[in-house]
């Protein structure tokens, strides 16, 4: 995989690696920024994902999956210059790669025409453009799949991670934003995140603030990047960065005054202040949209969480309307974000299809739930370990295990007929509460010893009584 934009001949070492001739010891560690998930982690991830999926389905969102790889032409130009640099490109294969490597000079475009999925929104836009005639007019979809970014790994930031997205395409109605924000609010509540807010803004409000401040349209993207750092580097840091990027001190000060107008104000007061400071017609309409969203969610899950936040910018360039992000005073960073993107689908077809969506940060959620001990007890062990003693015929034991499983009991069969103490220790290591001890006499008599490992209590039971004893576990 390649993710640099330079054009240069490959070194002998690189050619050796591509040819599979490296003699270095194979590392057992996963690639940097990627992880193995051991059973305990998988159980916790599945717990969170089950909650997420359950809420999304209650809201009528339909599942979607897309390929791991997309054409580079699909991905490039959708995430801004920085996003393009973070794309993982997939090398050509076979003879085509061989011909390319044989050239004296190698251009990146000659090496790759596919890339790993960067997010789930652009693939959705491609799917809507491709299959729009087969999809519902208002397509409500959820998608939970991994994405890849060639970013610098850090705590809570990985090169391979899962996104949990909900999107609605086909309507400009603000009901779509309401549905998305309410669904996300319910997910967070079910996971135990009660002290979180949804920061809300509008891309048109941002552009209007930049225009009113006297900043040239060509510097809009630069200004948005700086504004988005307000929580991290403070007003002085943003002011300095704006000036470093060619924006005058007066314009920077005016923009900061607009972006910080919400401090110590409720949503109604923030709206009123912005209406006064942004007299542009397009800004007034955008502010009316934000007011409508506050009204629509007043008696819904998202309502108490909404906080109008003029400094919220959201980095992706494809947003066109309301934007939102889940934040909290209890931790830095966000748990996800989204917004309206009415022009993205049109990049893949001649038809404009309005859309709005939200991407939930699964990895961040898992990290916080682990740190704050928010997981309930999650059972992953079997209910009973069947221990076959030495010299016990195994066929009847395997038959008994099968019947227990068919009755709904989760059973682990110890794979070796070794002394009982070691088998019981194995059950204890796996936190299995019961051991079912089967020896030659038990097979003949069809009565088995069920032992509760924590208390040491045990009883002799026939198969019917055994099923009755294990069924309530």
Automatic annotation (TrEMBL):
Residues 33-377 form the Aminoacyl-transfer RNA synthetases class-II family profile domain. One of its GO terms (biological process) is histidyl-tRNA aminoacylation. The keyword Chaperone does not apply. L-histidine binds at residues 119-121, 149, 163, 167, 314, 318-319. Its EC number is 6.1.1.21. One of its GO terms (cellular component) is cytoplasm. It is found in: Cytoplasm. It catalyses: tRNA(His) + L-histidine + ATP = L-histidyl-tRNA(His) + AMP + diphosphate + H(+). GO terms for molecular function: ATP binding; histidine-tRNA ligase activity. It comes from the Bacteria. The keyword Transferase does not apply. InterPro entries: aa-tRNA-synth_II, aa-tRNA-synth_II/BPL/LPL, Anticodon-bd, Anticodon-bd_dom_sf, His-tRNA-ligase, HisRS-like_core, HisRS/HisZ. Keywords: Aminoacyl-tRNA synthetase, ATP-binding, Cytoplasm, Ligase, Nucleotide-binding, Protein biosynthesis. NCBIfam families: hisS. Homodimer. Belongs to the class-II aminoacyl-tRNA synthetase family. This is Histidine--tRNA ligase. The lineage of its organism: Bacteria, Pseudomonadati, Nitrospinota/Tectimicrobiota group, Candidatus Tectimicrobiota.
């Amino acid at each position: 995989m390649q993710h640099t934009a330079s054009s240069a001949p490959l070194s002998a070492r690189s050619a050796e690696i591509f040819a599979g001739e490296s003699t270095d010891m194979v590392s057992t560690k996963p690639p940097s920024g990627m992880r193995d998930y051991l059973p305990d982690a998988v159980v916790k991830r599945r717990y969170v994902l089950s909650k997420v999926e359950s809420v999304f389905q209650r809201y009528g969102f339909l599942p979607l999956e897309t390929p791991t790889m997309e054409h580079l032409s699909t991905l490039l130009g959708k995430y801004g210059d920085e996003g393009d640099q973070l794309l993982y490109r997939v090398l050509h294969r076979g003879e085509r790669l061989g011909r390319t490597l044989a050239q004296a000079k190698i251009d990146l475009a000659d090496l790759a025409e596919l890339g790993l999925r960067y997010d789930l929104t652009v693939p959705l836009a491609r799917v809507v453009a491709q299959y729009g005639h087969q999809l519902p007019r208002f397509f409500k979809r959820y998608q939970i799949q991994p994405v890849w970014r060639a970013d610098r790994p850090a705590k809570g930031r990985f090169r391979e991670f899962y996104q949990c997205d909900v999107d609605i395409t086909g309507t400009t109605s603000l009901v779509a934003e309401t549905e998305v924000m309410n669904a996300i609010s319910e997910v967070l509540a079910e996971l135990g995140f009660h002290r979180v807010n949804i920061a809300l803004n509008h891309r048109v409000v941002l552009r209007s603030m930049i225009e009113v401040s006297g900043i040239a349209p060509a510097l809009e993207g630069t200004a948005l990047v700086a504004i988005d750092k307000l929580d991290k580097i403070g007003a002085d840091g943003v002011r300095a960065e704006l000036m470093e990027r060619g924006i005058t001190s007066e314009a920077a000060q005016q923009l900061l005054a607009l972006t910080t107008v919400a401090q110590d104000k409720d949503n109604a007061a923030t709206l009123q202040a912005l209406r006064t400071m942004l007299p542009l017609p397009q800004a007034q309409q955008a502010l009316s949209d934000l007011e409508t969203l506050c009204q629509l969610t007043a008696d819904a899950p998202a309502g108490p969480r909404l906080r109008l936040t003029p400094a919220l910018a959201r980095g992706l360039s494809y947003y066109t309307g309301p934007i939102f992000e889940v934040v909290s005073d209890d931790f830095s960073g966000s748990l996800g974000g989204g917004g309206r993107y009415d022009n993205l689908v049109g990049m893949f077809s001649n038809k404009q299809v309005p859309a709005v969506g939200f991407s939930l940060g699964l990895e961040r959620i898992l990290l916080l739930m682990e740190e704050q001990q928010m997981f309930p007890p999650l059972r992953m062990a079997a209910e009973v370990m069947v221990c076959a003693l030495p010299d016990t015929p195994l066929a009847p034991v395997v038959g008994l295990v099968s019947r227990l499983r068919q009755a709904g009991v989760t059973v682990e069969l110890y794979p070796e007929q070794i002394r009982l103490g070691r088998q019981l220790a194995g059950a204890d290591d796996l936190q299995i509460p019961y051991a079912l001890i089967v020896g030659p006499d038990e097979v003949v008599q069809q009565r088995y010893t069920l032992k509760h490992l924590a208390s040491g209590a045990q009883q002799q039971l026939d198969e019917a009584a055994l099923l009755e004893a294990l069924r309530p576990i």
